[in-house]
Amino acid sequence: MTIPPAAPDTFHVYDTTLRDGAQQEGMQLTVHDKLRIARYLDQLGVGYIEGGWPGANPNDTAFFAAAAEGQLTLRNATLVAFGATRKAGTFAADDPQVQALLDAKTEVVCIVAKSHDEHVLRALRTTLAENLAMIADTVSHLVAHGRRVFVDAEHFFDGYRANPEYALEVVRTAADAGAEVVVLCDTNGGMLPSWMADVVSAAAQIGVDLGIHCHNDTGCAVANTVAAVEAGVMHVQGTVNEYGERTGNANLVTVIANLQLKYGWPLVPPSALAEATRITHAIAGITNLPLSNRQPYVGSSAFAHKAGLHASAIKVDSNLYQHIDPMLVGNDMRMLVSDMAGRASVQMKGSSLGYDLSNRDLAARITEAVKARELDGYSYESADASFELLLRSEMGLTDEFFEVLAWRVFTTHEVKPEGDSEATVKLRAKGISHILVGEGHGPLNALDVALRGALTPAYPQVDNFELTDFRVRILDQGHGTDAIVRTLIDLTDGERTWTTVGVGTNVIEASWEALYDGYRWGLLKRD
Ligand SMILES: CC(=O)SCCNC(=O)CCNC(=O)[C@H](O)C(C)(C)COP(=O)(O)OP(=O)(O)OC[C@H]1O[C@@H](n2cnc3c(N)ncnc32)[C@H](O)[C@@H]1OP(=O)(O)O
Ligand SMILES: CC(=O)C(=O)O
């Protein structure tokens, strides 16, 4: 395998989350959101943060004003204002959009320029010569006002295919006018990795510093970016969590991790890369767009192992089934227990929960119990708390916190402020029987209120328990309302969150089982 020579010292890592990423359907960022995301990007160690398009909307203008007023102190990154070349038939000096770029007061400005002849003729409705004049005039005007200028050559790859001479002329014109980097954009995202090298190499003949900006429409944005880097670009653009129009932009964290951990290129400080998981999840929290579990490097499943055979090898050496040490990107290995588990999976999961399951017979017994329960519909992959209770029961560890003697719940259509459901729970705890009636909005809420109330005299700590999520899934889809259902419940005590599972033909029974496990596990940990 070839490792390309070390990245030049001048290599740029350029983030466009706040501009191209924000063009994603469903993303709406306030100025405050943008400032917070910019701070996280700075912590990640990127060299450039494209903050938006000043003048295009009041939000982006306000963001640059806030940054200029000192509300954004960047330790590593340089802030970039994004815009376009001047309008056809005018002068850059008279174009309000170009003036807004100067008013943003950033050291670097990035402008998008057309490089596909058909776009010039049909979208801009101007001549090929005027487009070149727009580029030269805008770049030289910004340079004359003390800005470092990058040019995004829009639709460069499709443009090169249609009219290579013109696409290359755009690159030459931008560089001659003073652009520091000309970024080749796969705007429609239609390229494949094997096509990148030829086009990038042809542009590199011009002798200017080149960048790459890829979209993910062929699912190849990261691969195309890496291929362009191998062909000689010295500037990579992308977004966190692959945010962006349509199918998104190249995932910048994946690109950084690939180049840094596979090629050994020192693009960001290792301590910053080790924060990548935290940072990408924090940004997902701000955008309110959930990060895919399966995102490379930083997803919660990126180092999760389900297959028994994998676990048996990982038990010997975790590197046998992992391409890197997850800690390098701040992630963690997770062992999943399911019907695909073997003894080793159960032993490692048990060990992570603090149990010694080195006895092969015991581990085999627990594995069989998991498989039998999963056949009945239980799922322990995420329900760690229910797994621990099952494990303890197989180990003969009895947790006699309380014994439920009876429970019932009913729902009416009567609308009352206390809710529409009423539950009664009768139990014995610490030798004393308690009975409590709880009212709530829906049967699960009523049961939760009643169970908590009945337990409180013996275990006041349950007052801190809170049900935070509840998921129901029909298991045998061929049936109608009498289908078997699985419920997963998340509870928290303010310090930790735990998940339990219940199964039944009756959604209330399945929910009760998960709730009952949830309280038992909570008491086990708080006692
Ligand atoms: C590939 C990319 O993703 S580039 C980034 C694209 N991002 C965005 O478009 C988001 C922000 N955009 C906006 O807020 C608005 O589109 C604005 C403010 C930029 C322009 O809005 P409007 O003035 O209403 O124009 P509208 O969006 O309809 O059309 C864009 C105009 O810019 C022209 N234009 C497009 N690209 C360029 C370019 N590279 N250089 C100069 N002019 C351009 C178009 O020909 C059109 O001109 P026209 O007004 O003479 O028809
Ligand atoms: C500039 C840009 O965002 C693109 O060409 O995709």
Automatic annotation (TrEMBL):
It comes from the Bacteria. Belongs to the alpha-IPM synthase/homocitrate synthase family. This is Citramalate synthase. It comes from Propionicimonas paludicola. One of its GO terms (molecular function) is 2-isopropylmalate synthase activity. Its EC number is 2.3.3.21. It is an enzyme of class 2 (transferase). SUPFAM superfamilies: 2-isopropylmalate synthase LeuA, allosteric (dimerisation) domain (SSF110921), Aldolase (SSF51569). PANTHER family: (R)-CITRAMALATE SYNTHASE (PTHR43538:SF1), ALPHA-IPM SYNTHASE/HOMOCITRATE SYNTHASE (PTHR43538). It catalyses: pyruvate + acetyl-CoA + H2O = (3R)-citramalate + CoA + H(+). Keywords: Amino-acid biosynthesis, Branched-chain amino acid biosynthesis, Isoleucine biosynthesis, Transferase. GO terms for biological process: isoleucine biosynthetic process; L-leucine biosynthetic process. NCBIfam families: citramal_synth (TIGR00977). Signal peptide: none annotated. Pathway: Amino-acid biosynthesis; L-isoleucine biosynthesis; 2-oxobutanoate from pyruvate: step 1/3. Residues 11-274 form the Pyruvate carboxyltransferase domain.
